[in-house]
């Protein structure tokens, strides 16, 4: 499974070029155009942008379709791009240009496979609350027919397979009242935010009693706080995000959020809800990856992820064998130290190449 030196340079160069193109959510056009050109140059017979702005590359014409779904957009924050001590630094190196570049490189290496159509996707707006690219694909394949299998491009480490993601719910709280002197008896709008947040914390803490695994816990995070006073109106705003485990009663959670907001004297808006999703463990897709990881000298293991991904969108809609795979340490997601180990990135390409060939004979 070793790669030639010229192949290694080409694969690393692809990822570095991707990192050099800033691609925040909603601003992926330049990267999309680059990837279409790059996939054409690497032998994809069909490479194009779809109606959502996704970069698509297709290889082969078999009756079974395997979708390799990565995303092009990144979190904000510019990180100087450099290659040092075997590590490639840059925003998106881990989340998730590294996995997407590995998809493109692996598909180019295997070429057309008997019985398989490979569809590599660089999706838009995965980091946003919209998942615009993935939702567009759901509608496309509703018309075409469900894919036979799907691999989500997210960092798990080259020898790990992601099988599940928690769900998500966001809540915006607003409290307003006429301005008044702080010596008065009434509760201020900033205090109202605190009361709301403490109620949600208490609910989560009670829910989590006896649940040792983080994947099984309800996670609440205070993501934004803001207050203002123009001399006439005092206003306070906050956003809380929830990571929802599979057994959580979401209707009860929504009711609790709304009741706590009312009790604190504010109003709340709930949005960006995604259900948790857990894939089947014993499928031809997972077996192909288990064999491929072992062939590369690894000891494969499964991971349950506490965030969300496009698996939450396409998994329930397609119902096909699905997993998440990609190089990189997810602990570096969205951090100023984001980087990927070049050796791991290259090894993941070898694993993907092996797994895709195994799927063609499964």
List the helices and strands and how they pair.
Layout (H helix, E strand, L loop, with lengths): L4 H16 L8 H13 L4 E4 L5 E5 L4 E8 L10 E3 L2 E3 L7 H14 L5 E8 L8 H13 L4 E5 L6 E6 L1 E12 L10 H19 L11 E11 L3 E12 L5 H15 L2 E8 L2 E2 L5 H12 L5 E5 L5 H8 L3 E4 L13 E3 H20 L1
Parallel strand pairs: 3-6, 3-7, 7-15, 8-14
Antiparallel strand pairs: 1-2, 2-6, 4-5, 5-16, 8-13, 9-11, 9-12, 10-11
Keywords for this entry:
about 350 residues, alpha/beta, Alpha-Beta Plaits, 2 domains, six-stranded mixed beta sheet, four-stranded antiparallel beta sheet, 16 strands
Characterize the structure shown.
With 362 residues, this protein is α/β, with parallel strands linked by helices. It folds into two domains: 5-165 and 277-361, 3-Layer(aba) Sandwich (Aminopeptidase), CATH 3.40.630; 167-274, Alpha-Beta Plaits (2-Layer Sandwich), CATH 3.30.70. It has nine helices and 16 strands. The chain has helices at 5-20, 29-41, 97-110, 132-144, 189-207, 250-264, 284-295, 311-318, 342-361; strands at 46-49, 55-59, 64-71, 82-84, 87-89, 116-123, 149-153, 160-165, 167-178, 219-229, 233-244, 267-274, 277-278, 301-305, 322-325, 339-341. A six-stranded mixed beta sheet has the order 1-2-6-3-7-15, with helices on both faces. α1 runs antiparallel to α3 (97-110) and α4 (132-144) packs parallel to α8 (311-318).
